[in-house]
Amino acid sequence: MATDYKIMVQNVTKEYDLFKTQSEKLRSFFALNSKPVPHFWSLMGISLKIMPGETLGLIGVNGSGKSTLSNIISGIIPQTTGIVDVRGDTSIIAIGAGLRGNLTGLENIRLKALMQGLTNEEIDGLMDDIVSFADIGDFLYQPVKSYSSGMKSRLGFSIAVHVNPDILIIDEALSVGDDTFYQKCVDKISEFKQEGKTIIFVSHSLKQVEMLCDRVAWIHYGTLKEVGDTESIVKDYRAFVKWFKDLSKKEKKQFQRKMKEAQKAFDIDAYQQSVVEDRQHEYPKEKNVAAKVKKDFYGSVISEKMTVGTRILTVLVLLAFLLSCWVNVSGHSLTEVADNPSVLMQPTSHVNTAGSIKK
Ligand SMILES: Nc1ncnc2c1ncn2[C@@H]1O[C@H](COP(=O)(O)OP(=O)(O)OP(=O)(O)O)[C@@H](O)[C@H]1O
Question: What is the pTM of this model?
Answer without folding.
Answer: 0.82
